[in-house]
Amino acid sequence: MNRIDELLDVLEKIYEIIHMIYTTNYGHLSLPEDVLLTRQEVIDYLGISESTYKRKVKQGSLKPHKFPGGDRFYKSDLRHEFFESKRRGRV
After folding, report:
1. What is the DSSP string of 25-79?
2. What's this model's pTM, rounded to 2 decimal places?
3. What is the rounded end-to-end Cα distance, in angstroms, of the chain?
């Protein structure tokens, strides 16, 4: 039983470390969570039309993640496209 208790202690410490890494507050540092956006939210966020969205997906400049219920985008993956939309005055 002693080895099982030691194993449980190690697993509990691993869980605590993982939990600390993935929480939004890491000590005094606040880590933003990456937000998943739907297709319509991406269109609104980038200030583009539906046809522009489809063209960018076809060209590969927007790469959706396939989820049940539709495509999703991580907000951090859209950084370059957002700055381009901002430069063009869409946002």
Report:
1. EETTEEPPPPPEEEHHHHHHHHT--HHHHHHHHHHTSS-PEEETTEEEEEGGGGH
2. 0.60
3. 62
Q: How far apart are CA 19 and CA 74, in angstroms?
A: 21
Tens-digit pLDDT profile for residues 59-85: 999 999 888 888 899 888 888 888 888
Residue whose pair of structure tokens reads 């208790």 in the numeric block: 5
- What tokens were used for 44? 């609104």
CB 34 within 8 A of CB 43: no
Residue 23: DSSP 8-state: S
